[in-house]
Amino acid sequence: MPWRKAWVDPSSYPSDGNLSEEEEEQLRSVLRKRAYEVWISEIMLQQTRVAVVIGYWERWMERWPTVDALAAAAEDDVRSAWQGLGYYSRATRIHEAAKLVCNDPVLRGLLPATAEELEKKVPGVGRYTAGAISAIVFGRAAAMVDGNVLRVLSRQLGILGDVKTDKKVIDTLWAAADALVKAVAWGNDERREEGEPPLSDRPGRWGQALMELGSTVCTPKPNCSACPVTDTCRAYAEGHALATEAGLVGSSKKQLPAAPDIEELCGLCEYFEDVVELDDEEDGTVTLADNPPAKPKPVKDTKQSKLSSFFFTPTTRSSKGGDEEVTPATKPSLEAMEVIASHARKFPVRKPKKKVREEETVVCAIRRESLLEPLEYEYIIHRRPEKGLLAGMWELPSHVLPESNDSTPKSRKSAAISYASGLVRGNDLKYVGKLGSVPWLFSHLKLTMHVYLFEIVGYQQGNWDGKDARWADTEKINLENMGTGMKKCWELVRRSRDSDYNSES
Ligand code: SF4
Fold first, then answer.
1. CA dihedral 9, 15, 18, 20 (to 10 degrees)
2. Per-residue pLDDT, 444
3. In a domain, 483, yes or no
4. Please, where are the H alpha helices in 233-384?
5. Using CA atoms, how far apart are residues 176 and 432, in angstroms rounded to an integer?
6. Which residues contact 5 (CB under 8 A, 6 or more apart)?
7. In the 8-state DSSP scheme, what is residue 240?
8. Domain of 452: which CATH number?
9. Which residues pair with 430 in a beta bridge?
């Protein structure tokens, strides 16, 4: 991944501890660039696959190689560079944040180094991104916990909870990640009880390794036989015990970590009996039965987030100072491994997915003959509001149909005519025909866009040359910032010939 680079070690700069002004500026400029690169990659990676992000990130860095260049960019150019990545508000927030960071007299274009300040001062930077920038760029012992890490830790700690919505579970896993990254950052340092761990590349490498473990091995359907950390994994140990009970594991009985009875202590976990495995679920996660009994009330004064409640199997240190090699236990048979992995799949639980909302819109392409080129057409486009779905993007005028079960071709056509007529009131509007329907899926919404073509004939009234609505020819619309679904609607319009549709439909 092009954004993964060697850690910038501040101590590798002139090392007597007294940087000259020039050296300080030099270090500052390297850190500015590194922080900017990691920040952009992390924001792009939210909700988007790595393979897709690589090209976007490279083009972005070529166009705006520094945070100052981004801050000086035109808003529309930034949105346009984001086209196809989805969640367009991310582009707007990055742009706002770049301007803010560059104009701040203290930051002067350099992102803050601590996770707390990053989250507080930089718009669009949440808990995870703040931890990632702080650890990867600035070498601080900050936890970075994404969905993959939540899954790995819920299995390692044996917490059978909902890592998406149960705040206590989420906080506990963050606390675990925090304790782990601090331990990793201290390493064998004797001063581990004193203040903050020293800066190093270890927190960044550790965080990325945990995420990668979750995305390659400890996936929703885990491959426990390829896992490097079975020894500390509570879910693995429990699965192993089940396989032993079933007679699938011979003499090499594995000891369950001596954890206290968590159920009685804190009530974080669901009951296994309430967890129903869904084999047909795409990602192999499990869900709760429809009406599980309430969880037991936590015992008064329990310390749910205290990591001493959990048990990590410590690595044995040899007297020579290094870690002793652990003799690998006999690998369980394939059958036993299946029992183990199937037990691990129960972690974490999650509530059944909410049904995605469905919506229908009529998209009205309203054209007129171009005033400059008589054989060409121009179309009305307008800009979406600055907040909400596809904020600030351009589109052909669209209207959401009221929710109903009786949406028919006839009712949709009549809604399109009434919307388009209202829009260009006072003009002679001709209905040309229906061009087709474009289904489009957002994470929370299933949208169907029905595309209609209209034409204004004769003399035109009204001013359509404003900031948020205007006439535009085909070439200009091709270059305009539009969501990918709307682009598909525009393709229908652009490719249509009058012979293609029936004005009766
Ligand atoms: S042993 Fe299995 S469940 Fe545990 S961390 Fe490894 S892959 Fe995940």
1. -80
2. 80
3. yes
4. 234-245, 262-266, 334-344
5. 63
6. 34, 37
7. H
8. 3.90.79.10
9. 455
Residue 489 lies in domain: 357-500
Question: Is residue 390 in a domain?
Answer: yes
Distance 209 CA to ligand 1 centre (A): 14
| Whether the predicted pLDDT of 54 surpasses 50 | yes
Q: How far is CA 86 from the centre of its chain?
A: 11
- How do strand 445-457 and strand 275-277 relate by DSSP bridges? unpaired
Strands 394-395 and 349-350, by their bridges, are: unpaired
Average pLDDT, the chain: 83
Q: Residue 325: its pLDDT value, please?
A: 42
Mean pLDDT calculated for residue range 336-356: 87
Per the structure, how many domains does the chain have?
1
Per-residue pLDDT tens digits for 207-266? 999 999 999 999 999 999 999 999 999 999 999 999 998 888 875 555 555 555 555 556
Rounded to 10°, the helix 334-344/234-245 angle is 130
Asked whether residue 460 is domain-assigned, the answer is: yes
What separation in Å is there between the alpha carbon of 159 and the centre of ligand 1? 13
Q: Could you give the C-alpha distances from 86 to 47, 51, 448, 491, in angstroms and in order?
A: 9, 15, 17, 19
Active site annotation includes 42? yes
In a domain, 399, yes or no: yes
Q: Is the CB of 218 under 6 A from ligand 1?
A: yes
Would you state the pLDDT for residue 290?
A: 46
Q: What is the mean pLDDT of residues 49-66?
A: 95
The per-residue pLDDT for 139 is 96
Residue 227 CB less than 6 A away from ligand 1: yes
Name the band, by pLDDT with cuts 50, 70 and 90, for residue 498. low
